[in-house]
Design goal:
By secondary structure, the chain is mostly helical. The protein has 4 helices and 3 strands, in the order E-E-E-H-H-H-H. Among the domains are: about 40 residues, no CATH class; about 50 residues. It is about 40% helix and about 10% strand. It has a 3-stranded antiparallel sheet, with no helix packed on it. The relative contact order is 0.08.
Length: about 140
């Protein structure tokens, strides 16, 4: 847990969102919680993320959501990750809510119609990105 990159998450604290104020210390390594010496409150490492409040291993969650994105069924993902289908459905719901919240923060006042979206997709698809993975040519 890197204390140099952490700030107080309490909006009423006078050190709110300020880095390197030496007011943050580790409250619990096990529960991954910080303590602000200025406002005397604790807050979680995962606060405001998809992982907040979940006790499941992060890699397991990321893998499960990636499998769902690839159109695997809830039951298949549950079998592979040794979890119940309702648990996988809960993870999917949380990921969807978090994705919607991020989209609402980043994409505002964009008024485009279906034709513009199609044009944007074809533009991006035709672009020659150096980091894009291209299929191998045959013959």
């Amino acid at each position: 847990m890197n204390l140099q990159q952490q700030w107080c998450d309490n909006s009423s604290c006078h050190e709110y969102q300020k880095l390197n104020c030496n007011n943050i210390q580790v409250h619990s390594y096990v529960q991954r919680r910080y303590y602000c010496r200025s406002c005397r409150r604790t807050f979680g490492f995962d606060q405001g993320t998809f992982f907040e409040g979940l006790r499941t291993n992060r890699q397991k969650l990321v893998d499960a959501v990636a499998m769902l994105v690839e159109r695997n069924s809830l039951r298949a993902v549950g079998r592979i990750k040794l979890s119940k289908p309702n648990t996988v459905l809960h993870w999917l719901d949380l990921a969807g809510q978090h994705a919607a919240a991020v989209s609402n923060l980043l994409i505002r006042d964009v008024h485009i119609d279906q034709a513009q979206i199609d044009e944007l997709y074809t533009f991006v698809k035709k672009r020659d990105f150096p980091h894009a993975v291209r299929p191998a040519r045959r013959g």
